[in-house]
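Students often ask why we bother encoding 3D structure as a string. The short answer is that it lets us treat folding as translation between two languages. Here is a chain of 300 residues written in the first language.
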Amino acid sequence: MTSSNQDRVIGLDVGGTEIKAGFLQGSEIVATRRWATEREQGPDHAVDQILLAAKSMHAEFPEAKAIGVVVPGVVNTKTGVAEYSENIGWRNIPFVKMINELTHLPVGFAHDVRAGGIAESLYGAGRGFANSFFMPIGTGIAGAIILNSEIYDDPYAGEIGHLDVNSGYMCACGVMGCLESISTGPSILRSYNSESSNNFTSVSQVLEAMHEGDAIAMKVWKEAVDAIGFALTAYINILAPEIIILGGGVSKAGEDLLKPISAYLDSRLTFQRRPKIAIASLGDHAGMIGAGIFAARRIQ
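And here it is in the second language, the structure alphabet:
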């Protein structure tokens, strides 16, 4: 399947809070719109919001040649079905069929993190590297595996957030010790607030306190970063990426994240190839641009 560099498409990046929609030409964002997912009103309503976004974007940009949608959870790209989302609550939603019937456009479909990974590989921080690993760290942690410049597309692949890092905390998945239980934004806040008289509401407050010499903040941040380093060391030993790209809200820490992770890896890696560690360059548009990539691939 091929598409012209001039083809313009629609990309929908579905998150638990909002749907980021774009009218796209490659990595160029011609226009963007946003809708609330409103998952608190139930999974059926969230599906309706996605269909509303697809219908509205198609009506506004009728010249689009295809539409891409990327969603969280267990995603089967072969059947076009979102099989499960713990975050939103849906099961077995045939998005490709539904959106095709609604818009009569070819539909690209993928997992949101894997879409962000291919976008960063083609247009972002991973450009020029054949083997990369994209790991957003936000309310959850997952990974997109790029091998020989293509995404490794398996519904259950990349769940690095559920690697046992011996955190001592229970994960939302029901297992003790997962990376997500100590290194996500909510986990960092929980760890800090449970030991401090402060009641912080953002990771940036924890970082500010750390820079002011708050011993609890320093301890909590080190534990979170060391757990990330431990997980990445395991990944490096298995798949040897040339670059690891960190995204998500926690990556906004910048050098406060990059430097200690780099130091951790330097202390653990001996003969292994040391990958470059970088912050994602496409920001919160990566998933939307990735949706556009998958849409363009559906054009005959």
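Translate back mentally: Residues 125-281 form a domain with the Nucleotidyltransferase; domain 5 fold (CATH 3.30.420.40). Keep this in mind for the problem set.
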